[in-house]
Amino acid sequence: MMTQTTKTASQLQGIGKGFNWRFFLLDNITGSRYQTVWIASLTLLTAFFTVVQFKKAPTITIVTLAAWSIGIIMVVVGTLFHRHTKVSRWLKNNLLSSVSNTVLSLLLMLALGMVVRGIALWAFINANFNPAETAPEFRSASGATWGVIWGARKLLLTGRMLPEDSPRVWLALWFILGMWALTYITGRPAWRDKLERVRQGIMGLWLLSPIVLYVFLAGISNTPYNIGTALAGLAFALAIYALFWWQKIARFSWLNLIATAAAWPLAYTIWWAIGRSGILPPINVDTWGGLMLSLIVASTVVILSMPVGMMLALGRRSEVYGIPDWIVWPVAIGVTIWGFTTTPQLLADSRSPIEQIFAFWPILVLLAAYILQRTFKGNVVAGASTAFIELIRSVPLITLLFMGIIMAPFFFETGTSVAKPWPVIVGYSLFSAAYTAEIIRGGLQAIPVGQYEASDSLGLNGFQKMRFIILPQALRIVVPAIVGQFIGAFKSSSLVSIVGLFDLLGITRAIINNPQWLGLRKEMYVFLAIVYFIGSFAMSSYSRKLEVQLGIGER
Q: What φ, ψ does residue 419 adopt, rounded to 5°?
């Protein structure tokens, strides 16, 4: 009995051993006048907010206070007995580490509960999901009218596209989903080696997927078979294959040569046969709209901007032998002299001081020659790439979109009409390519000089060095920045609505102005935000997964 009593007393003496109330109050409340005022003000604010929330939502407030109190008890017991659980240790380190953090945690929990309650009431509890009850007399002042989303689903998905063309949109969607499923299955570790040939075929289909989607969504017109086009494509394909073989990027084999020679004529023949059969007739691409147009613009910009940006980055860092002065200056002077012959006529036709200044445009030729020789040592490739990048980056995107639509007819025969999506996609792709080029150039500059020297010591030529050594490392470094650029391109695709295209944002404005759904602005923009968030989050998640696979930041 005496031994048990002594043991109990020893345990009681061990409770709170090392804890000093004086130091606790000094550290958390009475350490300074400002700290005391801050704790008192925060406590009064939290108490007032708690009372207000209790009147509005007593159940949520009681649950919040109970959870907060249980957390405090767990932290106090764990501290006094020096036996923390994982939960109490996390609470102490993150939420309840001091009196100030404890009170502030309660305030934030109540505020979060208020926000969650408000969203739940508006979006779910008091909401109306019936598409037939979107008229003003059916709407609730405290709830959303989500029936507009289902009622306007066709406009949100495909815009003004004719209903008879909608099956082709679903066909394109199922094609992409099937490709994703096959890619996922063949990429699993258990099937990767067994289905290597199938996986390579799927990769080839991915390269052809933009053409397949174009056939589905735009169609092919019935035109006569042009043998010149077939022969020109054949010559181009053989020239590319010869270049790769000459630079030792691709191995020569008769099978590869025959496949390369037959690829373009076969593809062109299939294209012509589809157009002649009338299975997939042309669709007016100006009727594209909704989510479909947003995805088309964003994905096309991503696909086109990557190779163009890579070439611009390599061009800006190129070190090819420049054009010597004895060639540049005579040519520049000759062009300038010829240009000044047009100056008198331009001055006579000028209507403002600005036009009079532009009449002396030949001076710019001498300035360009000076910059080319002084800055780039006559390197036309580096000079042209740098000028393009800096010019595009200095112009707002919306300006390029308007210029694309206005100037596109000048590149075609008189009377030729150009559908709006094409110049918009080209202008947006060039804009994105300029920024992508700078990202890739940063990756190229991050490669140590030793990698270049090691490539040279192995006897690799320029193409081999970039293809097998430099570019793989540079692209691996800039994966996060490139994905960020792609996410920005996806979200900025909404700017095409300003130039008259009915993308997801543009068609949303049209739906809001429809008398049937007039006033449902909040529901539409919330839905729009959710769609863009899902797309951006999916790309960001894939980027993180890719970073883990490539070991970025780990080695």
A: -65, 140
The answer to the question of residue 505 being in a domain is no
Rounded Cα distance, 427 and 400, in Å:
6
Residue-wise pLDDT for 34-48, tens only, equals 888 888 999 999 999
Which of the 8 DSSP states describes residue 143? S
DSSP state of 322: P
Please list the alpha-helical segments (H only) found in 82-135. Answer: 86-94, 99-120
Record the tokens describing residue 416, joined without a space. 């030729």
Token pair, residue 313, equals: 């980055």
Kindly state the helix (H) or strand (E) to which residue 170 belongs, with its residue range. helix 166-186
**Measuring CA to CA, how many Å separate 328 from each of 58, 202, 322, 368?**
82, 49, 10, 10
The domain tally of the chain equals: 1
Residue 128 pairs with which residues in a beta bridge?
145
256, burial (CB in 10 Å: exposed 0-12, middle 13-18, buried 19+): middle
| Residue 38 structural domain | 21-125
Q: pTM of the full predicted structure?
A: 0.87
C-alpha span between 47 and 52 (Å, rounded): 9
Calculate what percentage of the chain has a pLDDT beyond 70.
96
Q: Which residues does residue 272 pair with via DSSP β-bridges, in sequence order?
A: none
Query: What helix, strand, coil percent values describe the chain, rounded to 5?
Result: 75, 0, 20
C-alpha 428/C-alpha 400 separation (Å) is 7
Token couple for 42: 């925060």
Domain presence at residue 121: yes
Minimal CA–CA distance to 241: which of 216, 229, 259, 267? 259
Longest dimension (CA), the chain: 121
Mean pLDDT value across residues 336-348: 90
Q: Is residue 211, in this structure, part of any structural domain at all?
A: no
pLDDT digits (tens, 9 = 90+) for 422-464: 999 999 999 999 999 999 999 999 999 999 899 989 888 888 8
Cross-strand pairs, 290: 503
Residue 98 within a domain: yes
DSSP code per residue over 439-460: HHHHHHHHS-HHHHHHHHHTT-
DSSP string covering 336-404: HHHHHTTHHHHHHH--SHHHHHHTTTTHHHHHHHHHHHHHHTT-HHHHHHHHHHHHHHTS-HHHHHHHH
